[in-house]
Amino acid sequence: MIQNHEIDYKLHGEEMQCVEIELDPQETVIAESGSFMFMDEGIEMQTIFGDGSQEQGGLFGKILGAGKRLLTGESLFMTAFTNNGYGKQHVTFAAPYAGKIVPMNLSHYGHKVICQKDAFLCAAKGVSVGIEFQRKLGTGLFGGEGFIMQKLEGDGMAFVHAGGYIIERDLKPGELLRVDTGCIVAFTGGVDYDIQFVKGIKNAVFGGEGLFFAVLRGPGKVWLQSLPVSRLASRILSYAQPGNRRDEGSILGGLGNMFDGDGF
Question: Which of 137, 178, 132, 176 has the alpha carbon at shortest distance from 151?
Answer without folding.
Answer: 132
